[in-house]
Amino acid sequence: MAVTTEHRPAGAAVSAQAAAAAPESIDGFQLVIDALALNGLDTLYSLPGIPITDLTRRAQASGLRVLAFRHEQNAGYAASIAGFLTGRPGVCITVSAPGFLNGLNALAHATVNCFPMILISGSSEREVVDLQQGDYEEMDQLAIARPVAKAAYRVLHAEDIGVGIARAIRAAVSGRPGGVYLDLPAKLFAQTIDAAAGRASLIQVVDPAPRQMPAPEAVQRALDLLKSAKKPLIILGKGAAYAQVDSEIRALVETSGIPYLPMSMAKGLLPDTHELCAAAARSFVLPAADVVMLVGARLNWLLSHGKGKTWGAGASKAWGAQKFIQIDISPQEADSNVRIDAPLVGDVGSCVTALLAGMGSGWAKPPAQWLSAVHGKKSANIAKMAETLAKNPSPMNFHSALAVVRDIVKANPDAMLVNEGANALDFTRSIVDMHKPRKRIDVGTWGIMGIGMGYCIAAAVTTKQQVIAIEGDSAFGFSGMEVETICRYDLPVCIVVLNNNGVYKGTDLDPTGRDPAPTQFVKGARYDKIIEAFGGVGAHVTTPAELRAAMEAALASRKPTLINAVIDETAGTESGRITSLNPSAKKK
Ligand code: FYN
Ligand code: ADP
Fold first, then answer.
1. CA–CA gap between residue 318 and residue 320 (Å, rounded)
2. Which residue has the least CA distance to atom 21 on ligand 1?
């Protein structure tokens, strides 16, 4: 195939005579755009600059949606969560070296969280990079991306763009989803090839995420173990939410009659108010259960690695006394922390369907004693929480503010809830019930700060629903400038900054008296003024009643809104509910 590497800017005028004589050609820019569009990847999360500015312009001109951000990290986080919400890879496009590095954080996040995402970065010329001759933004990006990506590819020739995009899509969504890096050197974009041959080289990926059926003997092993259980428990993780097989999951819980614990982003797969939801009895069910079935959830730090005190392996119970069934698409996940007695490898939908078929209609529900013990513990915790939420302290605290959010989310079950912070995260998770699947998106597997505004933008764009973001004041700072992006695209996002003047709380002091403490912020900061600078609505509230009115107004108008919710600066504990992970706490 004839490849020319003409270096004329895209769209440059070509004389009419030359155009008439030359066969129709297509360049790298257009092939990338057409390959994405052919595969339904119609939204790009980006930040323009050399060498991808024309890519973003021409993508927009070709009908793709291009969301331009203020920092690549936020564009990347947006792409990653778009992947989670849609099941198609979210696409982030950045410039070379610094832009690429800014996007890399999100690529790693996508891989760690099992979200399908493709990071496409323009890069400098291979000939110069490989000899380290000091090109503009020189960096061996492919080598740097590889360790944090599920897969990483480079395309050097225009006729390979179709294959490059197809491989990236398959790698991102098949099996365990993850982040894929695609390196596109600047020179590629200007390459031209014969248009018909170029179009023929594009690939529409057939069945990018094939179903994976579990082996019948593995299904039987799991059923036998489940049948033997006296105190069974199901744990639903974000892999179960990602799979989008909500009615099958509901049927599994209801047919088996087994109490379930939703991990943070699995909240709402069944309504949190479901009678079998054991979220409010977490510390009771984990150590008490005898057989635990994990559905798209890993036994990582969020589940105390399946052992230790959380699981009851203390003085009275030996480690390994509990049995585990694990449904996961990754065959390598089982035994990563503790023995998995019945691994069930396959996609959640196929595995759950096979289990349901095996259970039939005569499946015996768990012993009543177990169900009533779970119910008793849960009711007591819910009653205790209701008592706390009924208080109206002055100043407002996390609980009284989040009681309002809880009501608003209940009244608007289709709204997306974005949540990050330490205490702002932990309190929201246990106070705000979710009523529908994939409505809660948060800090995920790493517990990172900074996903907030990127997630808001992607959630609004992909779901078209109202978005509510509950942000700690510290967490908001990581991506706050993207309120301009939210205003620019006029997205229905209502951001609530729970402002207690600092990280965790606002009362720390520098013992030497010289500087603010590392965890302190400017007292009385008016975050609401930031959004006003861009034409959005700002509100400053100090009571639950004011918060309610401001949130209701935001939802009624669907205008970009930022509510600065002032809460007690003494409210909040060090690191929220993960204080035990602080090295000083471990030393004790
Ligand atoms: C939960 N709970 C409830 C309810 N839901 N009580 C009443 N009503 C309702 N609806 C109870 C639950 O039983 C627990 O009490 C408690 O609230 C907390 O529940 P949660 O949040 O499910 O449990 P816990 O112990 O906090 O979970 C551990 C965890 C979680 C590691 C999964 O902390 C987590 O997801 N952490 C992420 C932290 C993070 O990423 N932080 C960002 C970095 S912060 P008991 O059963 O009595 O214990 C940087 O500093
Ligand atoms: P959580 O943090 O909610 O506990 P994790 O991210 O730890 O969830 O676990 C998600 C798991 O789900 C991963 O091990 C991943 O391999 C698995 N997974 C993702 N998609 C699917 C799917 N379609 N079918 C089965 N397992 C899946």
1. 6
2. 430
